């Protein structure tokens, strides 16, 4: 069974750093791309970026480029999304999700449960 | 960036009724269109991809149609578990920027 299990709720202050995780199981981690997406409270879904764990190819939505870093640790089948300096506007729920094995023009087929992040002074 | 526009924002229907959700793309996305179901507190679930192909395990009451810029998702006879928010998403853009509609909330009438 394909599973993407995300790390838990985070409560941070502006300026702090943060790294959230997405541990996958049930398939070959290095074969399938991983997306990261954001959902601000009461809003829709925004695509942040995508990484190919086997090739370390990372592409960012220009709206998020330079604001976050997407990475993986192949030894533990885990993808990460990190911030060096959080802002209040980063308050949202963040989802990891599985993309295609071969093609960037492909749907997302499995999602994590989401990691709520709250940033407030 | 390709803008996806969904209508209506909220659709109130009764169990057993038919629901039709619409999605429009600002540019031609061919058939590179997916629909997702999102229940509160749960992970979103892929319902349809390629505009009209049901994902694994999705009941036949869900059907997707369209290509280019106009798409619909129809649920033929609503069950209680179908009340959720539905998002359309295009995955045609190059360089890749995947964009979603703002969602249609299917509400119990």
Number of helical regions of chain B: 0
* Tally of DSSP β-strands of chain B: 11
Cα-based radius of gyration of chain B, to the nearest Å: 13 Å
The helix fraction of chain A, in percent, is under 10%
Order of helices and strands of chain A: EEEEEEEEEEE
Spans where pLDDT lies below 50 across 5 or more residues of chain B: none
Globular, elongated, flat, extended or rod-shaped: what is the shape of chain A? globular
The share of residues in helices of chain B is under 10%
Largest sheet of chain A: 7 strands, mixed
Q: What number is the mean pLDDT of chain B?
A: 95
Strand fraction of chain A: over 45%
The helix/strand class of chain B is mainly beta
* Poorly predicted regions of chain A: none
SSE ordering of chain B: EEEEEEEEEEE
**Helical/strand content category of chain A:** mainly beta
Q: Can you tell me the overall shape of chain B?
A: globular
State the total count of DSSP E strands of chain A.
11
| Terminal-residue CA separation of chain B | 35 Å
Largest sheet of chain B, in brief, is: 7 strands, mixed
Description of the structure:
- The complex is a heterodimer of chains A (121) and B (109).
- Chain A is mainly β.
- Chain A is 0% helix and 48% strand.
- In chain A, strand 5 and strand 6 form a beta hairpin.
- Chain A starts with a strand and ends with a strand.
- Chain B is an all-beta fold and 109 residues long.
- Chain B contains no helices and 11 strands.
- Chain B has strands at residues 4-7, 10-13, 19-25, 33-38, 45-49, 53-54, 62-67, 70-75, 85-90, 99-100, 104-108.
- The model of chain B has no long low-confidence stretch (mean pLDDT 95).
- Chains A and B meet through strand 5 and strand 10 of A and strand 5 and strand 10 of B.
